[in-house]
Design goal:
The chain is of the alpha+beta class and about 350 residues long. It has nine helices and 16 strands. It is about 30% helix and about 25% strand.
Length: about 350
């Protein structure tokens, strides 16, 4: 579950909500606000596009067509994708699997033995990248009339912004301060619906990132122990900006794992395979809960994550990283590192 929240663009000429037939067990629905929802097994995409009606329709049709077989393609190569990667590991055959392998491959030098890495660290981002690429390719000459688009795979988001446009295209992305606060707002809304007034917690977001085409950010991803995927660390969340979503996905996973402290009674862990028998993490201990930590431990964990983020920025794998542990955070981009109390809500 990703903690980044993308403000949705308006879709010009969107039709009323309708089910769109999909082959191979995949389901598609055009939502009332003009976004496209695609779902197949564990993969759940929300897709937005902004441009002429013809360009948006062409992009959505391409997304549906490409999405129909992605899950089967990945299942066919699961044993390879779940295996520990090495620098000499041969690439898989499928297009999405190769995206995953390529994104993870550049990190294999630091992850060996028990501290291994698999291509599954990039799966959500790679799926988002592939569907977005299909949207652009299918649009063809109409792509000139597609101003912006995104594919959101559970918080791992592939982005497209038209570089040459009479209007300056951008995305505003909210960075979550605490996933529990965001989740509680859904509970509060349900409680109010049933006549039970609730007080919503303040400050669900730490700030907003504005991304323009010339920033070259093609992917945003989030990881942390409060998310939908298992994490080895104590980060409430780590959000990454990168050239594509697969690169962001791997980096978010690895940096969130690095935001960690050893031998703390405040952290409850369990072997991953006991929670999910087919997990690629095997017997590695994943975080179940984190009680309030001493500030020194929080700062130690954040600094460890910031150091890893700096290395990835220096190597060009990512552009920026943001992370939070219990109200404290770090922010890294080119030539800039901050660790400490979270800033007041505003522009990041």
């Amino acid at each position: 579950m990703g903690a980044a929240s993308l403000r949705q663009p308006e879709i010009l000429g969107a039709a009323a909500p309708t089910d769109v037939p999909q082959k191979a067990g995949a389901a598609a629905m055009l939502l009332g606000d003009g976004r496209l929802h695609l779902q197949h097994g564990p993969i759940d995409l929300v897709i937005g596009a902004d441009g002429t009606p013809a360009a948006v329709n062409a992009a959505f049709l391409a997304a549906q067509h490409r999405f129909a077989t992605i899950l089967e393609e990945l299942v066919d190569e699961l044993p390879v994708l779940r295996a520990p990667m090495q620098a000499a590991s041969p690439p898989p055959h499928g297009v999405v699997a190769r995206r995953m392998w390529q994104a993870a491959r550049c990190h294999t030098g630091r992850y060996k033995g028990k501290n291994y890495l698999t291509a599954m660290a990039a799966v959500a981002g790679a799926v988002a990248d592939e569907v977005l690429a299909a949207m652009s390719d299918r649009a063809g000459c109409e792509c000139a009339e597609l101003d912006r688009a995104y594919v959101n795979n559970g918080g791992d988001i592939a982005l497209y912004l038209k570089a040459r446009s009479p209007f300056l295209q951008k995305f505003d992305i909210g960075i979550c301060a605490d996933p529990d606060i965001v989740f509680s707002r859904f509970s509060d809304a349900a409680a109010r619906h049933h006549g039970q007034p609730q007080k919503s917690p303040a400050r669900p977001f730490a700030g907003t990132i504005t991304i323009y085409a010339n920033d070259r950010v093609g992917g945003v991803a989030t990881s942390g122990w409060k998310g939908r995927s298992h994490s080895l660390g104590v980060a409430d969340f780590v959000t990454i900006l990168a050239p594509d979503a697969a690169a962001a996905d791997v980096a978010a996973t690895l940096i969130a794992n690095a935001v960690n402290v050893d031998n703390s009674a405040a952290i409850k862990r369990q072997p991953a395979h006991q929670l999910a028998p087919d997990s690629d993490l095997g017997r590695r201990l994943v975080t179940l809960s984190v009680a309030p930590l001493p500030v020194d431990d929080i700062m130690t964990a954040l600094k460890a994550g910031a150091r890893m983020a700096q290395k990835m920025i220096a190597s060009g794998n990512i552009y920026a990283a943001y992370g939070v542990v219990q109200g404290y955070g770090f922010h890294c981009d080119v030539g800039n590192v901050m660790v400490g109390n979270m800033p007041n809500q505003g522009q990041v």
